[in-house]
């Protein structure tokens, strides 16, 4: 009657394990904070919120977005708070380039909808078809394309190349393993009308 079961392990979402390890491979660390949405401290810490998130938000998606900011803003931007953004300024072309980079990296793995960004910039992401095609021929979109071209080149370099490709491939493997279960899935949440995010990119 006095037995107390020893706790020798902690359950973690497999997706979080993949992307926490990816952070280590990239030379940064993830910390969770309910008081923020997402920011960086300029000293290798990427802070991801864990409160008041939308139902389709998750740590992996939010961290992937931050890494794409890092790539677009330049390798050395990891030493700058919030990748060097001043969020009091008007919208920045680097945000749109980041969104296009996300699409380019995620799409070959069948994860373009899974890794779609959250927040107000989702509107732009959904408007983009081919990330290499401008929405309009104007100075803004031409600058976005130039930033994207430089970003894709950096994304292929280390530490980004192998770390991101491994994480995206592993995420796609989890998604693929769920396909046989989709037809029989029923939510355990009363009145839930939302499909699991995992099913968004799966073939019909």
Strand order of the largest sheet: 1-3-2
Shape: globular
Oligomer: single chain
Number of strands: 3
Rg over C-alpha atoms, rounded to the nearest angstrom: 18 Å
Compact description:
This protein has 6 helices and 3 strands. The protein has helices spanning 14-26, 59-73, 93-106, 122-127, 139-155, 160-178, and strands at residues 29-32, 38-40, 45-48. It is globular and about 70 Å long.
Can you give a write-up of this model?
The protein is globular, with a radius of gyration of 18 Å. 26% of the residues are buried. It has a 3-stranded mixed sheet. It has helices spanning 14-26, 59-73, 93-106, 122-127, 139-155, 160-178; strands at residues 29-32, 38-40, 45-48. The protein is built from 6 helices and 3 strands. The termini are far apart. The protein has one domain (14-174). By secondary structure, it is mostly helical.
Topology (elements, then pairings):
Layout: H1 14-26, E1 29-32, E2 38-40, E3 45-48, H2 59-73, H3 93-106, H4 122-127, H5 139-155, H6 160-178
Parallel strand pairs: 1-3
Antiparallel strand pairs: 2-3
Kindly list the characteristics that best describe this protein.
globular, 204 residues, 6 helices, mainly alpha
């Amino acid at each position: 009657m006095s037995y107390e079961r020893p706790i020798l392990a902690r359950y973690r979402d497999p997706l979080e394990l993949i992307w926490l390890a990816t952070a280590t491979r990239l030379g940064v660390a993830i910390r969770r904070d309910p008081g923020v949405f997402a920011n960086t401290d300029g000293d290798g810490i990427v802070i991801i919120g864990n409160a008041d998130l939308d139902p389709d938000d998750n740590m992996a998606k939010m961290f992937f977005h931050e890494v794409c900011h890092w790539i677009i803003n330049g390798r050395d931007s990891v030493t700058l708070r919030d990748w060097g953004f001043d969020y009091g300024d008007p919208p920045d072309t680097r945000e749109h380039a980041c969104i296009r980079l996300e699409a380019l990296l995620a799409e070959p793995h069948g994860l373009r909808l899974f890794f779609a960004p959250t927040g107000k910039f989702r509107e732009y992401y959904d408007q983009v078809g081919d990330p290499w095609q401008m929405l309009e021929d104007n100075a803004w979109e031409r600058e976005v394309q130039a930033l994207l071209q430089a970003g894709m080149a950096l994304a292929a370099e280390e530490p980004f190349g192998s770390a991101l490709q491994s994480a995206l491939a592993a995420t796609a493997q989890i998604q693929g393993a769920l396909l046989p279960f989709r037809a029989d899935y029923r939510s355990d949440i009363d009145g839930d009308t939302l499909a699991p995010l995992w099913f968004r990119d799966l073939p019909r």
